[in-house]
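Supplementary Note 3. Input sequence used for the single-chain structure prediction.
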Amino acid sequence: MSELLVNTTYEIELCSGELRYWRYLGLDHRHQAWWLDTESGQEFNESSLMYAWSITGPAPAGE
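The predicted structure, written as discrete structure tokens, is reproduced below.
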């Protein structure tokens, strides 16, 4: 996948096969990527995740 765009929502596939929609918030001063789970409203960085996931692409319109 090419470079992620700040404030763009992406479809994420978790290791369980579940699909989620996360908005990419950008990098902080330590170069850690921050995300917003659009369902829960929870913000987190990649280092706080304890499961495997992959970006399948931009979220469908309206997500």
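DSSP finds no helices and five strands in the chain. The mean pLDDT is 92.
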